[in-house]
Amino acid sequence: MNQSLLPRAQARRIRPSAPLVFSCLSLLAVAPLGAQTTAPTAPENEVVVLSPFTVSAESADRYRAGEAISAVRVRAPLLDTASSISVITRDMIDDLAPGRVFDVTRYVAGVQEGRGIQFQDRMIIRGFETQNGARTVDNFLQSADADNVEESIIDRIEVSKGPNAILSPAGAPGGSVNIITKAPSFRPSRTLTLQLGQFNAQKATLDVGGPIADSKSLAYRLVGSHQDTRTYWSSSAKNKNSAVAPMITWRISDQTQFTAKLVAAQHEIFREPALIIDPATKSGTVDPKLAPGFGYNGLNGTQTWSAVKTDSLDLFANLTTTINENLSVRVAANARRYNSDSDQEFVNGLPGLNNRYNPYTGELTLNQTWALTNTSLAHNATTNPYIATPRAYFNPGAIGVRGQIQWTQAETANFQTDAVLTHQLGVVSSQTVVGFGYSRQQGYSRVKDPGTLPAIDLSKPTAYAYPVYPANLTAHNGNAYTNMQGFINQRLGFFENRLYLTGGLLRYSTKTQSWSWNVNTGIANPRSVLDDGKNLWNLSALYKVRDNVSLYASRSINASPVIANNQPLWRSGEQDEIGFKTEFAGGKLSLNGAYFQIAQTNVTVPNPARQNDPTAPEQLVSDLKNKGYEFELMGRVSDNLSVIATYSHLKMRDALGRMVRGVADNNASTLLSYRFTDGEAKGLTLNAGVSYSGKRAGDAPINYTVLNVTGKTFFFLKAHAVDTFGATYRLNDRYTFRLNVDNMFDRKNYLAVAGGVFWGTGLTTATGRNIRFTTTVNW
């Protein structure tokens, strides 16, 4: 029997993790953290017990980890896990020096860029956007807050694809991003990293840790970072990010360990430049252009004060203990306080689109309106047809805008406890994981909208103005939820663990509610309440054809509560997946593939019309289906060369058979890293990467025209590729110098992301070349 497959505590030598980067110049408030999931390093030659609830600091290769915890919150080899989980190592993060999480997850099969790239760590996994609560940090779900997770506190990232009712029952249907944070170390380590660059740079990070006063039972870590940088679009439009994270680990005994982490972070994120699609665009255009007068790398009249400011504070406590060789327990808690203070400029008063669709063809004609020849009579194709009237979509000298202030506060409490029991029942191995989770959140938002602003005149794009806001609130809303989850996951191993059969059952109970107050009387309006429960389950089978080759099939049912447009709903669905996994070169290289089908009801996405018209419904609700396949090669192909190569193909369509906005059918990526281990170039590492995204729908059309003709997509984004090159030189284990060049060939002046015809819907232009230089000092 292969003992390494049993998720119980195992004695092993723990090696120190690779040096990490970045700085602490500010102690402003908050970002996320959670229950410890990476084992703290120990002094060399010391044997420690590794909890089944943690993953080792060791990796099979710089670009490949051999195990993950994102299936059922228990460590398991990826080869033996009947689901698609991709792991991004800290070495890969260091090589790419990312400004946001997607800069590294773009190299994961099935992951592509989401709309609104500046905040919320948005991305698309298997066709579903991850906003509205798909990000977990150390196993704790974080709601759709506007902040991004600071790179400086990340140890590794696990992307769990497909619905995961245990890890993230309220996550997006396509999958979840589980961010594993750094942990205290028993080996002294001190690094200071400084980064300079053209944009999205100017960052410093301090990372220090080790035993407290030479103790063998107490270790600490302190990570801090501060960034004050310009955006691509303007030197006066800034992004400012700060984080500080003190951590402590108490090794109570060889079997019991307690870790506490406090993470405070603060962000100021520039909203986005003003952009409008050229009204002369023909329906179905690929590679659309901006309207005349709009620049691809300017603010186009957007005010530099338009920003989202957030601060958060997270406290995480985690206790793991091994009762005996068969039973281990984890108890973890998280308290989070999140605040945002946004002062933003939005487009205002652009014409609605419904009467600009050709009733006969379903095509959007942005500079024309359609109406009956005689509006008092019914339509008659011969005597009273619909006719088009030229009517400009906007005036370049007077584009209406408004200001909006929104204050948001949320307080969240989370509790989790898990137990894993392993047994050998004759020739059958058994692993039982049981767990309970409780989470409670209450939040409020207050709004002043609209703030009066002069219209944008594209001939004077740098004119400064600040809104005149109403004296009183225009909206005051509240929301709250109390969720409880209890689950059991049973895995049985047969034929010396060549065959694994797994089944899980989770009970999800929720009381989710939202309400508002009448801003004139202060009286609360009736609440929208979902007080209900669902039984969710999963089944899987995995067969190891050889020691290094697995075949698997799985089926999972998921559901999460949502309140969309004041209506309580369950977003529910199912996924079927079959796939294979392989390992070569002693586990240093893997090749995996999967085919999946996902069907989801009540999928909610922000309504693009909401940015222009505050009275429009806040959410679009639809049923979606997706199927596709993906391949992923990851790890070491030689002693010097590591590689990641991925390809995914989707067929994501809405109920009317149209492409879903922002989702490409075809995506691919390649990342190579070559390390010189001897000779004159010893200490030098070169890396190069490219990620490709195919054609994507740029807008969400109406369902039907007044003549019941299906609305057509107005424009598509052309297929494009994003490249990065890097060189790292390590000198005497003390100094590290790194050069990163993103978009070396300076591809720009095209639309990279879109969700509608005007800004505020995710419309974003491609950034040009960015050169960054980083220096790290170890002492």
From TrEMBL:
SUPFAM superfamilies to which the protein is assigned, alphabetical: Porins
Keywords, ordered alphabetically: Cell outer membrane, Ion transport, Iron, Iron transport, Membrane, Receptor, Signal, TonB box, Transmembrane, Transmembrane beta strand, Transport
Record keyword Ion transport present: yes
Claim: Iron is one of the keywords in the record: yes
Xref: Pfam families: Plug (PF07715), TonB_dep_Rec_b-barrel (PF00593)
Domain of life: Bacteria
Domain annotation TonB-dependent receptor plug: ranges: 78-175
Membrane topology type: Multi-pass membrane protein
Main location, first listed in the record: membrane
GO molecular function: siderophore uptake transmembrane transporter activity
Cellular localization per UniProt: Cell outer membrane
Any one of the GO CC terms: cell outer membrane
Signal sequence annotation: 1-35
Domain annotation TonB-dependent receptor-like beta-barrel: ranges: 360-743
PANTHER family named in the record: FERRICHROME IRON RECEPTOR-RELATED, FERRICHROME OUTER MEMBRANE TRANSPORTER_PHAGE RECEPTOR
Assigned protein family: Belongs to the TonB-dependent receptor family.
The protein's name: Ferrichrome-iron receptor
Provenance organism: Lacunisphaera limnophila
Taxonomic lineage of the native organism: Bacteria, Pseudomonadati, Verrucomicrobiota, Opitutia, Opitutales
Encoding gene per record: fhuA_9
